Structures are given as C-alpha cells and as structure tokens.
Amino acid sequence: MTMEQDAASGLRGTRRRGMSVSGAGRVTRSVMHAQSGLPLVFTAQSPGQVLGEWIQANREELAALLLEHGALLFRGFAVGTSAAFEQCIVAGSGASLEYRFRASPRTTVAGNIYTSTDYPSDQWIFPHNEHSYSPVYPLHLYFHCALPPSTGGATPFGSTRRITAAIPPHIVEAFERRQILYVRNYGDGFGLPWPTVFQTDDRAEVERYCAGVGIETVWKSGDRLMTRQIGNAMVPHPQTGERLWFNHATFFNVSTLPPSIGEELMRTFPAHDMPTNTFHGDGGDIDPDHLTCLRDIYRREMTRFDWQAGDVVWLDNMLVVHGREPFQGQRRVLTGMAQAQRGMAIETTTEGT
Known about the structure:
Layout: H1 3-8, E1 17-19, E2 27-33, E3 38-44, H2 51-57, H3 59-69, E4 71-75, H4 82-93, E5 108-110, E6 113-115, E7 125-128, E8 136-147, E9 151-152, E10 157-159, H5 160-166, H6 169-178, E11 180-186, H7 194-198, H8 203-213, E12 216-220, E13 224-231, E14 234-236, E15 243-245, H9 259-268, E16 276-280, H10 288-300, E17 302-303, E18 312-316, E19 320-324, E20 327-328, E21 332-342
Parallel strand pairs: 3-4
Antiparallel strand pairs: 1-2, 2-3, 4-18, 5-6, 6-21, 7-19, 8-18, 8-21, 9-20, 10-17, 10-19, 11-13, 11-16, 12-13, 14-15
Helix pairs in contact: 2-4
C-alpha cells in the first residue's frame, strides 16, 4: 500500500507493571527515561512470545499508551525475520506503506520493509520527524534491531511536545506567518536521483504524483529535476488535535549539514540548486539565528538507549523525533511505516527563486 492510497482510505523511572494476556507469558512495563517519558518499555518475561500476536491482543491499550508516551520499545519477544517484523506493524497499525518521495538512501528488504538510512557509519543523522517535509507522511513509524553495532549506533528520541513548547514564540510566529519552502534538486551528482526518489523513471508519472500533492516540478537539462513545495511549520495531530512543530525546515537546511559537507555544497551550488534546502514560503532566507536556536532545542531534548538484538520500537511519528548516532561494527536496523496522513497542499507561488 502506498501512502497516498492509505491517506485516501537498562531501565529506570516508574515502577515496573505487568501486563498479562490469556495464553501468553507475563510482560513487564516501565519507563526508561522518567523526565521525557521516552520510551515506554515492554519486556517479555517468557521466551518465545511472538510480538505480533501480543500487539494484536493488546492493541487498544497500546494505542492509548502510544498517544501518551509517543514511543514504545518491545524487548525479549520473538521477532526473528522481516516478515515477523511486518506482522508487528500490521498488528499495531494496519498495512505497511511504500517508501515514496524519498529523502535518504535505503535498501528494500522485503515488501514495505526497508533498512534504516544507509548513511556512512561515521555520520550523525540530525533529529527529525519522518517525512515531515512531504505532503503525505506516516503517522506511525517502526524500527527493528536485527543486529546491534559493537559501539554507538543508537536511535535517539525526542518529544515533539517538549520541542514545540521550547521554541520561542517569535520564531513560531515567523514560521507560521511565512511558512516553509522546500527546494530539492535531483541528478546534480549529490543526493538521490529522481527515479529513486519517486520509484519510477517515467517523467509523466512523477508529474502526476507531484501535481496530486501540491509539489511543483521544474525539469532541467541533463535529465535533472527540481521540486518545490510550501508547507506549514505547525501541524495538528489527527487524534489529539495538538498543534505540533512538524516540519523539515531545520533538517533540510544546508546550514544543518556537517561543516565539511555544507561548506563544499555552498561553494559548488547556488542556494536554490542544493540537493535540499529550505527557505520561507515567500522565497526569503530563514533567519540563521532561528535555525541555530532550533538545532539547539532538538539536540537538548534527545534521549538515547543502546539497541539490543530483537528490539522493536513503535513511534507516533508526530509526537517523537528520531536521529542516529555514528557507530562501529555491523549494524542492521529495519524500518517500516504505517497510517498515512495527508497535509493540506499549498500552492507554490514564490518570487525571486
């Protein structure tokens, strides 16, 4: 199922609590980090408990806890294959989604299960909400650790609620008033080529997809493509109604890249020809001080844990941001998405771009 189809249709903190299911072993519950409430951890006390079945049996309670905490971590359950991992997604959230309008390199494992971002192991991945640049985005995001690295490689989490509350009102006001312009360029030797991003080499299909979700396409010489779209900074959660800071304004801005990469890109390309960059919706630059403040807030709100083999994480993608630490050794973390949401398409009419 695609997002578009779905949109159209070591523990400390609180005391451990037990959850029991008829015919299943006991599962304890605890909060790993008391201050942030992230993540809420469920640990199987009996070997061989099948996680997909346990999620299905406890789906209603887990869904309520997901809205409260934003991140659920399952440990000690039987999740031996990518098919078993996808069963967890189906049990908790319904059909998994195709990864389309891509922003990072990933490898398809099976069906709609992918490797997490295939960036070099020495690189950090800045905190972000998955696909928050896109007019169609997943409400739920899942991770499965098939092989933990020898060192590092955590997937740190941060509460979007806490991030939203920490942003100074004048910055929120500026973004709400002027919105966000996302500019992406494909085929210039950096970033992903457009057939990978859109999962087709048919220009007409790309244009149909983009027109349907409010993305402007500009074809350039040499089979290169630019896309532009305007998005909101604050987005209401579809279940709670909370207005949350949910966007890629910071993540996609060239100033957020490591200096060695960002400086090279700025020497090579004009601002609107970068692989990804962000501006205000009127075409103006985003205040550098605002971006610095936002980066500091994201980083300050992150909490981490070390992956263990077999771990599965279920995130509310609007309530929790995630990133990735550098690592050593082999690391295999799989991911899947579910419950597509469609934001409001905003006509792209900027000047001076």
